[in-house]
Amino acid sequence: MPTAPRSLRLAATAAGLLLASSMTITAHAAPVPTPAPAAQAATRAAADWSAPLSTQGRYIVDSRGNRFRLKAANWDGAQGSYNGSGDVDDPASHHAGQNAHDIPLGLDRVPIARLLSDFRELGVNTIRLPFSNELVHRTTPVPDAAVTANPQLRGKTPLQVYDAVVDALSQAGFAVILNNHTNTSRWCCGIDGNERWNSSQSTGQWADDWVFMARRYASVPGVVGADLYNEVRRDILDDPNWGLGDAHDWYAAAQTAGDRILTEANPRLLIVIEGINWTGIPVDGLPHGRPQLTPARTLSHTLVDSHKLVYSAHFYGYTGPRHSGATGIGETHDARYQDLSRDELNAALTDEAFYVEESGRHYTAPVWISEFGAGAGETNPATRAWFGNVTDYFTDHDADFAYWPLVGFDGHDDWALLRYDEGGRRSGLLDSGDWRAPVWRHLMDTPGKTGSVPAAAVWKMLDTDHGDAVESLRVRGTGDWDSGAYKAACPDGLRLAGLSHTGGRGLCTDAGAPGLRAADGAQSVVKDERFVSGGDWASGYTKLQCPSGAFLIGYGLRGERVSSALCAPGRSALAGGGRTVWFDRSDNRPADGAGGEFAEGAYKGQCAVNEYAAGIAFTTRLGARQGPAALLCRTLP
């Protein structure tokens, strides 16, 4: 987001701290007018893809398996524009003097069909559409003045206007990613009551709102994603975290909301999880910085659908790896991204986000830079150079991206790609003289990967750090298979490939044998040695072995002790020799490190890609760790 509001809020914060498949469209609002010829042409160009979207390795693909690159922009406004002080009806009290009335900007100045035509002229195919939780519950209609150029929207609530915008975008062939940007209808992103998903509400209420929104647009084919929350960051007293299991655990909250959306509302949606934007106090000498996606390297998300996770991050020139973006009070001596050399910037982008696209890891997923931008009036050479360097990186890495912002008022927000005066006349990137235009065209026009994306092996981690990790819909449908234990089960289509000796972590994959499980949905819960056959593969240890022809898909733990093995039958005979993989005294994993570091700090055992796990061994000796100590790995047919 633009510089000044964020800098002022962070500076004030620091001062305070120091002092203390395609479906028929269902319209949700009044019909959108028939597009003009230019808009109709834009519709045809935009519709060269087929919903729903999913992921294949580091790429997003459409329903035909073709690469769909998110060339996106943020159409903001519905998340709120009020700065938090002054008369709420005075435009001067709103960001950049623009009162959005809690609906997407520009509907007072330009008919929606013309706006969409202008979007297509920019070349974008996807709209990130922010909203606030307050908007979801507001029942007061927007003032007529807020929709002057779109009179069919008079008398509508902000959510009903949002409905109409979503429908119009979908009908015009754009992909739409819903973005929960704020709790309250206040401009973010500093200390403003919107720092965390649960700053102004409970995590349960937040997830309930997501289920409501995902259901609301489930029949709109253009709605392809749920971007769970924007720029999770510190408030005055507390940091968010990634995996501690408390009320500030963004990892756990995103996991909960993502699975609820997919199981209760709309299984077609991509689930977009942004990294943590800021932790610590922005004061020299005190810990602070932008974790972004770095925590996913050792703790990544596993959803009930292994092809729906997208990670995201934000980069602006005025911020930095350890710089809040503030000026004056609250500014530290850390480098901003625009202060970095081209090579240093590339290294930072890779380390903080794009390493996630490395293939064959539990964290492998598409990375979407869902915000970046610069002002048309920018004269700072460092900022201009940064804008060129960061977009060059996006081009070189064939990255998915979304510019901030798309629409603004002429004379108010020069960051916007498109600006409109009170008469609806357009200016901005499409005009001659905008220094950003050549950079934008290079980003948009440089060819990237297109066409069919080959199937990629999936690797996913399971963690029982703070509870169950049952990510199989089939298993969930059978009820509680080991009451009182912490349970973990691989997503459907994957098998268990690795376990940690301590910590309760597991590794799942379909590498070498996609679709290994029989179609009948049967499973076996093994709690004793009744199925042990073929010799004593772990002498002196308790062995939980799958029945003949079955393979491991899950496990149960009571404290550290193994309590059960969960097995599923193979679709064909699973004969083949076996070997014991011990890991109670050291790591025992394939040399290529397939799957990545899924249990940092613990000993780990893992079957090879051409094997499946058929049993778990552990000891019950007094004083010994009773977690998994060995796997029985058998050769795949």
Automatic annotation (TrEMBL):
Q: Which residues form the signal peptide?
A: 1-29
Residues of the Glycoside hydrolase family domain: 112-405
Spell out the protein name for this chain: Glycoside hydrolase
Q: Which UniProt keywords apply?
A: Glycosidase, Hydrolase, Signal
Cited InterPro entries: GH, Glyco_hydro_5, Glyco_hydro_5_CS
Q: What does the record list as GO biological process?
A: polysaccharide catabolic process
Report the sequence similarity comment from the record.
Answer: Belongs to the glycosyl hydrolase 5 (cellulase A) family.
Could you confirm whether the keyword Signal appears in this record?
Answer: yes
Q: Does the keyword Nucleus apply?
A: no
Instruction: Map out region (Disordered) in residue numbers.
Output: 81-100
